[in-house]
Amino acid sequence: MKLTKEFTKLEKSAVKLTVTIAKEDVEKGYKETLAKYAKSVQLPGFRKGHVPENILERKLGDSLKADVAGNLIDTALNEAFESETEYRPLPYAQPVMEKMPDIDITKDLTFSVTYDTFPKVSVKDFSGITVKEPQVTVGDKELQDELKAIQERNAVVMDRKADEKVEKGNIVTINYSELDDDGKIIDGSKREDFVFTVGTGENIYKIDDDIIGMKKDETKEFTKKYKKDDADKELAGKTKKISVTVTAIKIRNLPALDDDLAQDVNEKYKTLDDLKADITKNMEHAKDKRVKELKSNDLVAQLVERTPFDIPESMLKAELDGRWKMMAQQFQTTPEELEKMLSSSGSKKEDMLKEWTGDSEKMLKSRIVIDSLMRDRNISVTPEEIEAQYAKIAEDNGISVEDVKKRYADPRSKEYLIDDAKEQKLYDELFKEVKVVKGEKTAFADLFKNAQ
Asked: What is the pLDDT of residue 452?
C-alpha cells in the first residue's frame, strides 16, 4: 500500500497521526471488497453470487463504503506502526479517530488518529545532586527483637478457659458489623471469624481496648468517635456504631530461648548461637539492601524533580486500574463488589483513585526516568554477570546456586532477574556521578517503615 504519514506532537506525550492512502489503493480496495460482496451477498430476485455490481452499489452503498474504509484504515495503521520506533502507541489504549472519512475512489483517502506514546525523557544534568545514606547499626537490641519474633512464631496457641476474659496479647476470633442509627446492620459491613491479636491494632475499627474484658460468646455494642487527624482517612472525623461478638479467645505460650528452639526453627542449626549468627547475617543483608533502595529512591526523586514531563493519560489510567484490581484481590472480592463495599461506608471509587493519583504519577515518572537512563546508556548484562547474580542470591539465602537457578527457570522470572541486574548496574554507575553523604542515624526497625 502506498501511503504517507505525518506525526504531530500533542500534550502529555500524545500524538496525532495523519495518514493519506493513495487513490489507486483506495480504488483497488473498493473493487476487492465489491467483488467479495458479489460472491457472498444474496438479494431478492438474484441467485447468490450473481447480483450485478451496480445493484450492490445502489442497495448496499453505505455499508460497502464503511467496510472498505475500515479495511483500508486497519491495513494502513498496521503498516504505519510496523516500522515506527519513535511514535509507537502505548498498549493501554487504542488510537482514537474522531471522524470516519468518506470514501471517494477517485481521490486519496486521508484520516487522523490520536494516541499516547512513551514519554521522551533525557536526563543529562547530575550537578548538585547529594544523596543521603542512612546510618544503621545491627546490634544486640535488634537481635533480641528478632529472637522475640521467632518465639512468637513458634509459640503454642491454647484456648483460654470459658470464664476467662479477653486480655492484651490474646488471639481473639470475632464477628463484627457496623450499625446504622436504627441499630440495623449496614450492608457490606458484616464480617465473621476475623482473627487478630489484641493490642496490635490490626483491625478495621481499632477496637482492641473495647473488647478487653469480654468473654467468649459475649456480644457488645459500642460507639466510637475517631479524631479528625486519624491516620485512617476512611475513619477520620467519623462516628461508628459497632457490634462485636467474641467467638474464641486464645493465648500464646512462648518457648524458651535455647538450643531446642534453634533446632525447631531449622535443622541446620545445632545451637542457639548458630541461630543468632544467621539472624545477624540476614539482618545485615536486609539492612544493606534497604539502605541501597532508599539511596536509589532519593536519587531518582531528585532526577524526576529536575526533569519535568507529563504522564500520558492512558498510562496513568492503566496504573490506577491495576491498583484498584489489586486492592480487590486483597479483599478477596471483585472490583465491582469492592466499589459496592466502599459505597456502603460512604466512600467513592473516584475519590480513592484521585487520592492515589499523586503517588502513582511519582512512581510512573521514576520508572520512566530509570528506563530512559538505561536506554540512553545502553545498559546491558552479560551471562557471566547473571551467573554472579545467581551466586550472590545463593550466598544471601544460604542455598545452592542450583536451587537459585531452579527458582528462575521460568522465562519470565529470569527476565525479571535480568532487568533487576541491569537496574542495579545503572545505579552503581549513577552513584559514582553524584555526591553520597552520611545521613541520620536510623534504628533498624525504622529503616523498613513505609517499605513497599
From this structure: 58
Cell numbers that stand for 384 in this block: 557471566
For the four alpha carbons of 355, 356, 358 and 359, in that order, the dihedral sign comes to positive
Please write the tens of the pLDDT for every residue from 257-296. 999 999 999 999 999 999 999 999 999 999 999 999 999 9
* Torsion from C-alpha of 131, 134, 135, 139, nearest 10 degrees: -150
- d(CA 323, CA 329) in angstroms, rounded, equals 10
**CA–CA distance, 313 with 165 (Å, rounded to integer):** 55
Alpha carbons 420 and 296: distance in angstroms, whole number: 13
Strands 109-116 and 435-442: unpaired
340: enclosing H helix or E strand: helix 335-344
Gyration radius of the chain's alpha carbons: 32
The residue type at 108: D
Predicted TM-score (pTM) of this structure: 0.68
* Strand partners of residue 223: 241
The CB-based long-range contact list for 337-341 (8 Å cut-off, 24+ gap) reads 340/188, 341/188
For the segment 7-16, what is each residue's pLDDT rounded down to a tens digit? 999 999 999 9
